[in-house]
Amino acid sequence: MVKEIIKDEFFLKQKSKSCTKEDLYIANELLETIQAYKEQCVGMAANMIGYLKTMMVVLDENKYLILINPVILKTSGKTYQTEEGCLSLQGVRKTQRYESIKVSYLDQDFKKKIKTFKGYTAQIIQHELDHFEGKII
Fold first, then answer.
1. Would residue 128 show up in a list of annotated catalytic residues for this protein?
2. Which reactions does this protein catalyse (predicted)?
C-alpha cells in the first residue's frame, strides 16, 4: 500500500525503535511508497510513512535494498559537505557525509549482512539513519 509522506516535524523528531520480525510488513509499504515517488526519492525511512522503526529502503545499483536495524560499523574518515532534500521537508539543507561506510543490517529474511557502501548510496543511508535519530537535515 502506498502510504502518505509524513511532514509533521514533531513526529519526525522522535527516535525510532528496533524492528522485530512482526514489523516485516513495513518493508512492502516502504517499497510500494518509494516506487510511487521514484522520480523524486532514492531513499526512505520508516518514519517517513508513519512507523517509528529502524527500517529503510535505498536505491542501490539500480535496485531497491531493504535495510533493517542498520548500524554503521566503520566510516572512511573522509567527509564532504553536500546539500540534501527530503520528501518530508521543503527545500534543501547543508550537511556533512562520509564517503564510505561499512554497515551491518538485517535483510528481509532477518539474516545479518555486512556491506560497504560508497558514494551516493552511502550518502542516502546516512540520511535515512539521521531519520532514525529524529535528526532533520
1. yes
2. N-terminal N-formyl-L-methionyl-[peptide] + H2O = N-terminal L-methionyl-[peptide] + formate
d(CA 68, CA 73): 15
Neighbours of 113 (CB within 10 A): 14
User: pTM for the whole thing?
Assistant: 0.95
Active-site entry in 29, 61, 128, 133: 128
Domain 9-132 sits in CATH at 3.90.45.10
pLDDT (tens place) for every residue of the chain, 137 residues total: 999 999 999 999 999 999 999 999 999 999 999 999 999 999 999 999 999 999 999 999 999 999 999 999 999 878 999 999 998 888 888 999 999 999 999 999 999 999 999 999 999 999 999 999 999 77
Known binding-site residue numbers for Fe cation: 86, 127, 131
